[in-house]
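hey
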């Protein structure tokens, strides 16, 4: 048994040196990416808060430019980046993997996300962080030269896991996401290597920037497990909304695919104007990832149903446009908005607990990775003691979403990338 497991590990010292250097590079690169993205979205929000009408000029122009450049010059940088990792891991073709994952792709992702945030796009950073992490680790294969398919695919899954860990300071969620999504077809033995390197990345991240939670510490809020059944309506509602989001997005992405440049520009302009109108009415509140808005809601703020509707439609419009940008944090902010509104009807459960449960339920319904959804949010809020009700709402919402949209959103988009790369 020991010999069989050891066969799944690299046997050269330079491979482990490469993994260490890749881990260090991912931590430094993604930390820079997070800071630059945060600066960009704050700059836009400050400007639009003072002069809301500028959103009608800045946002549509930014969306059109990004869509045009990405579609015709940097196609594999589009979207969140997670479908690219899944497609690369599902493919046995080296040329396809190199188109989807490279140092060049990582640099392009950072630049486009900065541009999108500066233009008011409602996009997140976790999917791009996962794409950047996967691209860096796979890029290091030029030096460590892994040959075996299992190790190459493990390297991609490690990179994706590392990206999520550094972005959200969530080591368990990072590993589980590699298991649920990126490396779902890998042999179980490969998970040992993924877990070990993921742990190394987490340790390096703590040394480099500390161990603060990505959101806030909610460990002081207790929950009576006997009330868990009361959360089922919230999970069902979140499951319906998340399933509809995924189904609508996949339908519109297929509908709006066009190879005519003028149509591409017109569609991007229309979607940009939709996003701009919500930026105007919310004074920039729906722009960016939604990180600050979630912090306010966890502190007891209630932005209202209007925020949920605007963020929902704006996020959908942004993703349909195919501009680079993540889905996790915008979905979490929508879930938080649902929870803050639903909390008015829960007299026996603390508002913060309801908000956290809604975040878990809605994210699980959208990405269809319930274990990841539970742990990423509980780790971001330092509330792992809520794991039982979290699992209940996550799997309930996931099941409801599955009845509406059969194929998970990332898998469906990954299939599109495989088709595109095989044609080109």
């Amino acid at each position: 048994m020991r010999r069989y497991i050891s066969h799944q590990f690299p046997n050269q010292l330079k491979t482990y040196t490469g993994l260490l250097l890749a881990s260090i590079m991912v931590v430094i690169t993604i930390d820079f990416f997070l800071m630059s993205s945060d600066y960009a979205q704050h700059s836009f929000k400050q400007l639009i808060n003072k002069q809301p009408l500028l959103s009608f000029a800045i946002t549509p122009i930014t969306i059109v430019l990004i869509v045009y450049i990405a579609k015709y010059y940097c196609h594999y940088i589009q979207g969140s980046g997670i479908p690219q990792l899944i497609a690369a891991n599902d493919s046995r073709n080296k040329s396809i993997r190199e188109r989807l994952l490279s140092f060049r792709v990582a640099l392009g992702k950072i630049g486009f996300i900065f541009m999108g945030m500066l233009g008011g796009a409602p996009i997140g950073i976790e999917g791009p962080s996962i794409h950047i992490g996967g691209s860096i680790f796979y890029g290091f294969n030029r030096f460590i030269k892994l040959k075996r398919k299992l190790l190459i695919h493990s390297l991609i899954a490690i990179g994706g896991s590392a990206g999520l860990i550094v972005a959200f300071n969530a080591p368990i969620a990072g590993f589980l996401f590699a298991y649920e999504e990126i490396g779902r077809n890998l042999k179980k033995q490969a998970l040992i290597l993924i877990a070990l390197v993921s742990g190394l990345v987490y340790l390096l991240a703590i040394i480099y920037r500390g161990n603060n939670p990505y959101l806030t510490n909610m460990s002081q809020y207790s929950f009576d497990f006997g009330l868990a059944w009361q959360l089922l309506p919230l999970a069902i509602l979140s499951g319906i909304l998340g399933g509809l989001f995924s189904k609508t997005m996949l339908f519109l992405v297929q509908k709006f695919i066009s190879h005519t440049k003028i149509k591409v520009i017109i569609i991007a302009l229309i979607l940009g104007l939709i996003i701009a109108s919500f930026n105007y009415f919310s004074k920039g509140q729906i722009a960016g990832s939604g990180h600050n808005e979630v912090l306010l809601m966890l502190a007891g703020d209630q932005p209202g149903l209007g925020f949920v509707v605007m963020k929902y439609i704006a996020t959908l419009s942004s993703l349909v446009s195919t501009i680079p940008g993540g889905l996790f944090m915008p979905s979490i902010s929508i879930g938080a908005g649902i929870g803050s509104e639903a909390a008015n009807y829960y007299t026996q459960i603390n508002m913060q607990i309801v908000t956290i449960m809604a975040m878990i339920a809605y994210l699980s319904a959208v990405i269809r990775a319930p274990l990841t959804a539970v742990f990423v949010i509980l780790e971001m809020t330092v509330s792992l003691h809520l794991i039982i009700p979290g699992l209940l709402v996550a799997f309930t919402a996931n099941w409801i979403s599955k009845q509406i949209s059969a194929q998970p959103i990332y898998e469906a988009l990954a299939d599109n990338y495989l088709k595109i790369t095989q044609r080109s």
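The mean pLDDT is 88. The chain has two domains: 2-209, 225-423.
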